[in-house]
Specification:
This protein starts with a helix and ends with a strand. It is of the alpha/beta class and 695 residues long. The relative contact order is 0.13. The structure holds adenosine-5'-triphosphate and magnesium ion (MG).
């Protein structure tokens, strides 16, 4: 594509933003003004104008989903030969770097990056190696471990290494005068020790967590100038989307890559202990003179929702100081939403004290490029069920006029709040996808598979067997079997054992089905030894003919069955993820993994979604970031859910160790307002707010 074609249709500010590539560029602009569009167009433009080869461009985004979306958009503008453009999340960029330089950095080449759940399991197995005295996690170890890991991850976001933390805790302990101070310092000492232990354990077994990837990459670039030099030579342009949500460590990474003389800022003199560092310093000053990649960042301070105590707003503000010759562009025209939606969002967000609009006197009041549109509508019902039913009915009604289910999104506060809505959608036969594992595991079809795995690994799991037998895979009648289930409960004989005996209550047809299922179980128990969970499940789907049944119904046009097949595929993705990270990939271990996953919930980092699947998106408010839909339903808007209660973390990073500027005002309410603002501005045509009276 030619440069002219790429620029076609852009307004003059967007055009200017795409064409300006001589130095650092900061675009601060409201929602839907084409920030992401500018980044994707810029990629195409740089290549068309021969300012860079595809492989010399690095685009960093926030979530896997965003990276995927951006790839799609670049593909549309520039379909051929652009595969070499690196579009990555910060974490996956860092992971790839560590992989490529593993030998040089002393990592094993087959290190694994653990998900949140895998981390918990990893620590749970080794909890007694932690030497905990003050914190006694025995009553609820999983919750404690999850909190502790969250804390370590925040320390890493702030680039605080175990040694720095220990030094801090030790100094506080030495200085402490009153009892309360001593106690506090002791707690920090214990946490610092636990942090150091955790880091050692992970490295020793070739494991990293998400935070580690950035931390170790940053360290490598500070200590090994040749690596930094290579990256600075590889990339001519670095583009960052959603810059408002970069944390301290991500911002440090960006700085070291793109600011010529950074040495004095990043190397904390306290950490330079050995004489080698002197040499490194000298070397570093040589490569400081190499040309650095040109950086473009786009962001919206009003959409900062992932930050640590508002720190990221300080990243945007600090940007102009770090890059003195930065050019700034503001985009004001909104191409996404109607004016009515934009006005509603502005009425809300202008109440925030800490905004760039007031600080920098820039005007962020958005003007819609589309139409006035109708005012947001409020759906208020007696109960959550009725609320959800109304939402589903409204979608059904609108769908008749529209083409796709994927034009609709229902935003919920947390994964747990989705249930009423996913149920209502199912009841109305509306296909949907739901971010987060709970959503997947709540699907009927996945419950069946889990029931099979449960009864396979635990013959006394009556409920699992009951679910399996009454499911469409086996098809035993519900009523008859529940009477039996009730009966065996009082006798303490496991349902399976009871059914294997002579059961008078069951007719011949049902008997046949049950016997077939039990035979299959016996066979699988015998043969599953030494097989991994994925293999076992796959064989079960084959031998029970379940997969065959689903796909033949799908071929006849059944949407529900198509959806089931997609769910099964996602479930296999989970299993694969689990198998990749564990040496023991057997069934028992997998069941343990599922338990923790269901108890702790899952981070959005891992959710992936096929954007081509025509289904209503049920998302958390957070997961909606960067996306757009014709119709958005903001559901469950009740007191204490929105704004949510201000729950503090179990462990807080000491303020003394935080390096960026902390925000002013009521931080929590401002953050909630931003989240609400993000949600409103996802809607293109119409916005609905809903709640129920009884909850
Ligand atoms: P967010 O703040 O939510 O991340 P954004 O600023 O990144 O939003 P985009 O997603 O890039 O905005 O753009 C919003 C919508 O407007 C997209 O559908 C995009 O294709 C469209 N758009 C952007 N610029 C133009 C333009 N000049 N003409 C027509 N449509 C445009
Ligand atoms: Mg965007």
């Amino acid at each position: 594509m030619q440069a002219d074609e790429i620029l076609e249709g852009l307004n003059s500010e967007q055009r200017e933003a795409v064409k300006y590539n001589d130095g650092p560029l900061l675009i601060v602009a409201g929602a839907g003004t084409g920030k992401t569009a500018v980044i994707t167009k810029k990629i195409a433009y740089l290549i068309a104008e021969k300012l860079a080869k595809p492989s010399e461009i690095l685009a960093l985004t926030f979530t896997k989903k965003a990276a995927y979306e951006m790839e799609e958009r670049v593909d549309i503008i520039a379909p051929y030969g652009y595969n070499d453009v690196k579009i990555k999340t910060f974490h996956s960029f860092a992971e790839e770097f560590l992989q490529e330089n593993a030998y040089y950095l002393g990592f094993s080449t087959n290190f694994k990056v653990l998900s949140d759940i895998q981390q918990i399991l990893f620590v749970r197995e080794r909890i007694f190696d932690f030497d905990l005295k003050i914190f006694r996690p025995l009553s609820d170890p999983t919750k404690f471990i999850a909190d502790m890991l969250k804390y370590f991850s925040r320390l890493k976001d702030e680039v605080i290494e175990p040694q720095t933390y220990t030094d801090f805790a030790q100094t506080s302990a030495d200085k402490a005068q009153i009892e309360a101070e001593k106690e506090e310092a002791e707690k920090h000492l214990e946490l610092a020790r636990a942090y150091a232990t955790y880091q050692k354990m992970m490295i020793a077994s070739d494991r990293l967590d998400f935070g580690d990837t950035l931390l170790y990459m940053l360290k490598a670039l500070q200590e090994k100038p040749s690596l930094l030099a290579r990256l600075r030579q590889t990339y001519k342009y670095i583009l960052v989307d959603e810059f408002q949500d970069t944390n301290y460590s991500q911002n440090e990474l960006l700085k070291i890559l793109t600011i010529a003389n950074l040495k004095s800022q990043i190397q904390n003199p306290k950490q330079i202990k050995n004489p080698k560092s002197e040499i490194q310093n000298n070397l570093q000053s040589e490569i400081c003179n190499l040309p650095c990649p040109v950086v473009t960042v786009v962001g919206d301070d009003d959409q900062s929702i992932y930050k640590f105590r508002g720190a990221s707003v300080s990243n945007i503000m600090a940007f102009t100081e770090q890059y003195p010759n930065v050019k700034q562009i503001v985009l004001k025209e909104n191409y996404r939403s109607t004016q009515a939606i934009l006005d509603a969002s502005y009425r809300l967000i202008k109440n925030n004290e800490e905004r760039l609009e007031t600080k920098y006197k820039i005007d962020k009041k958005l003007i819609s490029a589309t139409e006035q549109g109708s005012e947001p509508e409020f759906i208020y019902k007696d109960s959550e069920q009725e609320e959800a039913a109304s939402v589903a009915e409204e979608i059904k009604k609108l769908k008749k006029q529209e083409n796709n289910y994927s034009d609709f999104a229902i935003l919920v506060r947390g994964n747990k709040n989705a249930l009423a809505f996913t149920n209502a959608l199912s009841a109305h036969k509306i296909p949907f996808t739901f971010s987060g594992a709970e959503g997947l595991f709540r699907k009927q079809v996945i419950k069946i598979l889990i029931s099979f795995l449960s009864i396979l690994s635990n013959p006394t799991d009556n409920l699992a067997l009951f679910n399996l037998l009454t499911s469409e895979v086996v098809g035993v009648g519900y009523d008859g079997l529940s009477v039996i289930l009730h009966k065996v409960r009082s006798t303490n004989i496991p349902l399976e054992e009871y059914l294997r005996g002579k059961v008078a209550e069951i007719n011949a047809e049902e008997r046949g089905k049950i016997e077939k299922a039990l035979d299959l179980l016996t066979k699988f128990r015998r043969e599953s030894v030494g097989k991994n969970t994925g293999e076992i499940l796959y064989e079960f789907l084959q031998e029970s003919d379940y997969l065959k049944m689903l796909s033949s119904r799908e071929k006849e046009g059944s949407i529900a069955d198509a959806e089931k097949i997609i769910s099964i595929a996602s479930f296999f993705d989970r299993i694969r993820g689990f198998q990749d990270a564990n040496l023991d990939t057997g069934l028992q271990k997998f069941m343990e993994y599922l338990d923790v996953l269901l108890e702790v919930g899952e981070d959005a980092k891992e959710s992936s979604d096929d954007p081509n699947f025509d289904a209503v998106r049920v998302l958390t408010f957070h997961a909606g970031k960067g996306l757009e839909f014709d119709y958005v339903f903001m559901a469950g808007l009740i007191d204490s859910r929105f704004p949510g209660a201000n729950r503090s973390n179990t462990f807080e990073v000491p303020v003394e160790l935080i390096k960026e500027k902390l925000p002013e005002g009521d931080v929590h309410v401002q953050e909630e307002r931003r989240l609400f603002y993000v949600a409103i501005t996802r809607a293109k045509k119409k916005l609905y707010l809903s709640s129920g009276r009884d909850y």
